[in-house]
Amino acid sequence: MNEKPKNDSEARPDQAKDPYNFYRYLRDHDPVCRMEGDGPWQVARYEDVHRILKDQDTFSSDVSMQPPEERSPSMLFSDPPVHNRLRKLVSYAFKPSYIEAQRTVVEVRCEELIADMKQHKSVDLVDALASPLPVNIIAHMLGVVDGDMKAFKVWSDTIFSNIGDILFGVTSEEAQRCSDELNAYFLERIAELRVNPVDHVLGRLVQTETEDGRLTDEELLSFCRLLLIAGNETTTGLITAAVRIFDEVPETLVQLRENPGLIPGFIEEALRYYSPFAATIRKVTRDVTIAGTAIPAGSIVLPLISSANRDERVFDRPEAFVIDRQPNPHVAFGFGIHFCLGAHLARLEGQIAVEQLVQNFSNISLATSVGAEEGSGLGGPKSLRVELQV
Ligand code: HEM
């Protein structure tokens, strides 16, 4: 790995206004830096982000501030052995072969959404495709019927937008109400599925039994919530990332239409270039040194996935979008024991959405520019007006 020379006279870019330049500045000058005085530590270089994700003993995912008795068991925010048990139980329902079997459902839903888009010259891509596609697919996999979709979308949006508060124990009234409604809805479905099994993800989870026992109702509910939080906004972010790239590098649209074999590599590069899960969180379990900075036990660290994925120590020309970049060891889906459980599904949805967009539109361009700050949070821009040419 090459060390970049430091230019200490460079001014620190504003994180909110210019995140990618801010990350570059951190990688070069301040690779482990504290937010707002005594806030969490941001870790910017690929090597250090990778090390944190790999070492679950030193960097714990159990970051919740809620007392253990008030928490629901969540795979994402737990360490072994709790994590092993939950992951093993749900992995069966997320096997690549089962996800591949969802291909037709994803294709059909995508075709319907794109047929609607073709009626307009300009749409909000988030409303028209990027948000409804993943929400519909998760809903389908959890057995939510069409009539309940509207409520499901509201629960999903509200729980997602309150994730920080939920994690740190200050749930808003609205988030609490949505959480209660979602729990009541799924408890009813789970009770039905225990009597009449159905082969969808929730049905499989209800029936799964290993030497570790079955998932409890509380664990099943927690998993439904996790899928909403971890799976929807992130996949929305991947689809908006793809379209932002069509606008920035218009030849990609033509290349993909003429050579669909490039689509999987395009998706990997889109995940690297505009990483939808921009940063994750860990708690340090012992005093540790990262890139020369001593961090005491108990500190919160934020491995900056977006920054790692643009690290010039690992990627040639990291600021360029290279449609067939090889190798592309991005960490957009994380690394280690918490590696994204939904990566196959996200890739499938991303690839199908891109395939159908390039087949159906001769050109797609942004109607307004995306503010850097809007595009850098978890997921991506909350709205993205695009102009379409068939
Ligand atoms: C482009 C879309 C997606 C991205 C970029 C993404 C990214 C990630 C990342 C970075 C992690 C690890 C977080 C950590 O280590 O703290 C993660 C975990 C997870 N993701 Fe995804 N994700 C995506 C889509 C999905 C989908 C579609 C689902 C399910 C439907 C999903 C379910 C999960 C779950 C359950 C975990 C927790 C795994 C564990 O703790 O063992 N994700 N995801």
Any descriptors?
single chain, 390 residues, alpha+beta, Cytochrome p450, 5-stranded mixed β-sheet, 16 helices, disordered N terminus, binds protoporphyrin IX containing FE
Write the layout of secondary structure elements.
Layout: H1 19-29, E1 32-34, E2 41-43, H2 46-54, E3 59-60, H3 82-91, H4 96-100, H5 103-117, E4 122-124, H6 125-130, H7 132-141, H8 149-161, H9 163-167, H10 173-195, H11 201-207, H12 217-248, H13 251-258, H14 263-273, E5 282-284, E6 288-290, E7 293-295, E8 300-303, H15 305-308, H16 343-360, E9 363-366, E10 385-389
Helix pairs in contact: 5-7, 5-16, 7-8, 7-12, 8-10, 8-12, 10-12, 12-14, 12-16, 14-16
The chain binds protoporphyrin IX containing FE (HEM).
Task: Please describe what this structure looks like.
This protein has 390 residues and is an alpha+beta fold. It has one domain: Cytochrome P450 (Cytochrome p450, Orthogonal Bundle). Helix content is 48%, strand content 8%. The chain contains 16 helices and ten strands. The strands form three sheets. A five-stranded mixed beta sheet has the order 1-2-8-5-3. Strands 4-10-9 form a three-stranded antiparallel beta sheet. It has a two-stranded antiparallel sheet with strand order 6-7. The N terminus is likely disordered. Protoporphyrin IX containing FE binds next to helix 12 and helix 16.
